[in-house]
Amino acid sequence: xxxxxxxxxHMLAVSKNAMNPKGIPYKAMxxxxxxxxxxxxAAVTETRGSVQRGVSWHKQPTYMVLFAFLGIALAFxxxxxxxxxxxxxxxxxxxKQFSVTLGSLLAFSVVSSxxxxxxxxxxxxxxxxxxxxxxxxxxxxKMFALTSDPMGFMSVEIxxxxxxxxxxxxxxxxxxxxxxxxxxxxxxxNGLADKTSNVSVPTINWSIANAFQEDNVSTVPGTVIINIxxxxxxxxxxxxxxxxxxxxxxxxxxxxxxxxxxxxxxxxKIYFDQYVEDLAQNNIFTSTSWTTHYQxxxxxxxxLVSPWPSMAYLSAFDPWMYPGNDSLGWLRIGELDTSSPDxxxxxxxxxxxxxxxxxxxxxxxxxxxxxxxxVLTANDSFVYGLVNGTRNxxxxxxxxxxxxxxxxxxxxxxxxMLWTNVPGYPGSLGNTRHRDIAPxxxxxQSMISMLSGNIxxxxxxxxxxxxxxxxxxxxxxSCVLSTGLAGCDDFLNAYxxxxxLVGNADCLPAVRGTTxxxxxxxxxxxxxxxxxxxxxxxTEFFTKPASACRNHSLARGIEDLAANITISLFSxxxxx
Length: 576
What we know:
Number of strands: 16
Transmembrane segments: 63-82, 102-122, 164-189
Helix content: 25-40%
Strand content: 15-25%
Keywords: Membrane, Transmembrane, Transmembrane helix
Radius of gyration: 51 Å
Number of domains: 3
Number of helices: 16
């Protein structure tokens, strides 16, 4: 083996003591002779290394703080942006799409910033935990992989000795899920935006005579008015009106014809009583006529010879509206004795001929009277006078569907008609009434045409043997049954529902010197049965629900019907 010369190999011995480096001897060693040679002190260059412990503040801590504050700033920006958009109206599709995209971008940036801050903090805190505590190699491996392998959360040792490490890892995973599903996603939905603007709304033009009347010389309602009255009555609502916009609302004071319900005055009460008496003479009874005069009677006039009495539920009429013999809609001067209704369902009733003098303001040529609908039910009687009044009506249209309500009637004045009172002179349009009230009267007639007539019930004779006491309509039918008024308590809870009448086939006919008679009685008494057996039930033809009648009262229901018809005029462009 060749030997190396001392010049070829040099070994440097460095002492790590605290001695002065200039005093350290350096010698060259000869391998073969084991001798040391001195080296000049100036020929040696000293190299010293150092170990740095800790973290550079321009790196990880800066990242943690920077991304945390950035996430907070972006979160406030996201919240402020969405708060600004909340309730705002999107003008076009681009604006809507841009708002959604920008909001999602801000939400994703918030999550990404917090995720970056967490990613910088986790390894730093992990190393600090390792320096302070001892962990098994298996636990260390799980701790280093905890942000990529969720199975590490199964380790009890991590939660026991490094709970903050586990918490940071959980936050990391939560942030990852939040990055996939950004919170606070902006949703654009259809909504209502309040916008007040001045627009022109139509009003009713009462001067269009031939739109309201059949012709220019009568108060007979035209086809348009009849149709509006029928639709409003049958639907128990205002006919559909077109609003200024699909979603809009406004209020309007509507002055026009309405009716007011009132009890009959003393003079009207006299004629009501006469009419009730005439009905009883024709086997049609109200609760008053039955209980007062005939309930305990054993001998009646020969006109009452019938085994089957009729029960009156409704009789409605206006004694002034029946046309008589002339073609202008005037009352006939003679006795009102015609039983056939006219085309508007007005009908003649047995009212004494001097009613014109008793119930009107008369002079030697004319008499003035307020059109009134007279209504008689099984339990009560009242009148509805035609008036000129004002209601504040609120129109509200939501998605094209109307919601209309109105206030109380105010600024009311009676509407009076002038009639000729001179025999042989039927009168003419010019000298008997003012043109301004003609549309009012036409509208009034369209309403009473749905109400005028009789509704009576009679226990069917064909079912007596089986005690199935069914009701049948009897007399001139009223159209009330097709309206919501049929749900009023005046019908559903009428006197006859608990006291139905039944006859006796053993009637004695009239003979010379005597009068015929029948014994009529309460059906429940006659057959010793109770209402619980449902033997008699008037709801067979009063089929409307109680909710269709306001306050369950016929008195209020007819007032509503008149208001609905007047407001429904806005549905017809010809009248505006």
